[in-house]
Amino acid sequence: MIATRFGKNLLAARKRAGLSQEGLALAASIHRTEIGLLERGERTPRIDTVLKLAGTLGVPVAELIAGIEWSPGHVERGQFEAVAAGGGEEGR
């Protein structure tokens, strides 16, 4: 899950920086409880929050989102079909 992976990455980066949750929250202008929710994977961060955290911790955003990838699902291309004026099967 995205939130869980982000939380683990955030926790590791915060500990390496030697900051408490409160210290990180204060420096990043984020409420302390938000840091806890993010680290426990109970909340997925908004992009502005990710940028604040990465900047405050002095790490690239890529470090906080490491291990999170997107794989597109199967998509079929549409196509036009010629249909007779009456909407019937003629002309197909």
Explained architecture:
The protein is mostly helical. Helices cover 51% and strands 0% of the residues. The chain has 5 helices and no strands.
Q: Write down the overall mean pLDDT.
A: 91
Number of helices: 5
Low-confidence stretches: none
Terminal residue distance = 46 Å
Q: In what range is the share of β-strand residues?
A: under 5%
- Strand tally: 0
Nearest-angstrom radius of gyration?
23 Å
Helix/strand-derived category reads: mainly alpha
Q: Give the fraction of residues assigned to helices.
A: 40-55%
Series of secondary-structure elements, N-terminal to C-terminal: HHHHH
Shape: elongated
Largest sheet, in brief, is:
none
What brief labels describe this structure?
92 residues, mainly alpha
Quick overview of this protein structure:
Helix content is 51%, strand content 0%. It has 92 residues and is mainly α.
Topology, please?
Elements: H1 2-17, H2 21-28, H3 32-39, H4 47-57, H5 61-64
